[in-house]
User: Fold this.
Amino acid sequence: MLTDNRIDQFKADVASVKPKGARSRRDNILQGVGLLLMIVGVVVAFVVYQSSTDEADPRNIQSEIILAITMLALSVIGAALFISASLARFFSLWLLRQIYENQENAERVAAAMRRDSVG
Assistant:
C-alpha cells in the first residue's frame, strides 16, 4: 500500500513539473526551433543543390553548393538544440525519480534502524 501511495504521489509530482516553469517553456521553444531548423536546413539545402545542377557558370555552382553546405550546418545546429532540450526534459524527470527512490531507501534504512534499536 505504501508503494501505491508513493507511485500516485510520483505521478502527481510529475504532472506538476510539466510545462509550468520558465525553464520548461524555454526548453519547449528550443525544441521547436531546433526541429524547425532541422527541417528548413535540409529542405533548403536540397532545393539549392538541385538548382545548382541547372547552372552553367562554375562560380554560380560553387556559390550554391556553399549555400547548401551552410544549410546542412544549420540543420546540424537545429539537431543539437532539439537534442539538448529533449535531454533537459528527460533528465529533470529522471532526477525526480532518483529523489523518490533515494527517499524510499532512506525510509527503509531508518525503519530498519528503529527495529534494531527497539529489539
About this structure: The chain has one domain: 23-118.
